[in-house]
Amino acid sequence: MKRIIWILSLCLAISACATSNNLTVQTEAAHTENFLIFQPEWETDRDFPCMSTASFRSRKFPLKYTIVKLDLNAEDTEIIIDCNKNSVKKFASENNCLLALNATPFGKQPAGIVIRNKEKLYPPEPKYSALAFFKETKGWSVRIALSQEDEILEKADIAAGGFFTILAEGEFVKQYIHTDDARIAAGTAENGRILYILAVDGGIFSGSRGLSFLECALIFKQLGCDYAMEFDGGNSTELCIHGKRITKIPFLRKQLVHIGFRPERM
User: Tens-digit pLDDT profile for the chain (266 aa)?
Assistant: First the structure.
C-alpha cells in the first residue's frame, strides 16, 4: 500500500512540475508583453555615431536594463577582444573602448572559443554558441554561431564563445533556464550589419529583478533580431559606456574575456 501511495505521489509531482514549467513560460511571456516591450528612444552617441543607447526602467516592477545598438556599417569602427582576467571597466580604460562588455565567466577558462585577428586562442566548445565578427569592405558584419563547431567561425576575424542561443531565425529556442538574473546578451539584425547588446541589472541591492532567457529573447525579437544569444550573466554582468559602468551589480567579479568597440582613429 505504501508503495502504491509513493508511486501516486511521484506521478503527481512530475505532473505538477510539467504544469509549473508550462506556466512559467506563459507567465514569462505575459510579463514581458506587459512590462518589457517598449519603443526604444534611441540616443545617438556624439563621439561614436554608430552607437545608440536606450534605457528601460519599470515603475510597476523592479526592473532596469539598457540596450545598445551598433551600426556595423561604419567604416571607422574597431573591435577589440582580450583574454586577461580583469574588470570590463579596466579593460575599457586600457584600450580606450567607448563600449565594452563581458563575454565569459570569471573562472580560469572561457566559454569555449576565442578568436583574435583570425587566430584561435581557445578551442571550441560544441554545446555553446559564439558571437563572430567579420571584416568587410566597409565596416563589419556579425553572426551568431549556434554551435562553436559551425564552419562560419573558420572565417571569423574576431569571435567569443558565450553560452546558449535564445533566438534563431526569429523563433524562440527552447530553454530550461527560467530564473531571473542579471544578463548580458547579444542579438543580430539586418543581415548581420546591426548588433544589439542587452544588459540587464539583477540580484540583491541592484533594484532590479533581472530577466530570464525567454524574456531576453522576446526583447530581441521585438527589436527585429533574427538571432540572439546569452553571455555569462549574474555577477559577471558588466557593461561600460565611455568608461562608466552602466550595470549596477553589487558583487562584481573579474571576467576572463572582454569585447570592446572604439573609433578606429583612437
Answer: 434 433 333 333 333 333 333 334 444 444 555 555 567 889 999 999 999 999 988 777 788 899 999 999 998 999 999 998 899 999 999 999 999 999 987 777 888 999 999 999 999 999 999 999 999 999 999 999 999 999 999 999 999 999 899 999 999 998 767 788 999 999 999 999 999 999 998 877 777 888 999 999 999 999 999 999 999 888 889 999 999 999 887 666 788 999 999 998 65
- Residue 134 DSSP one-character state: E
Pair 164, 114: CB distance under 8 Å: no
In the numeric block, the cell 549574474 is attached to: 234
User: What distance in Å separates the CA atoms of residue 103 and residue 87, rounded to the nearest whole number?
Assistant: 11
Contact 24, 176 (CB under 8 A): no
Give the span between the Cα atoms of 211 and 70, in whole angstroms. Answer: 22
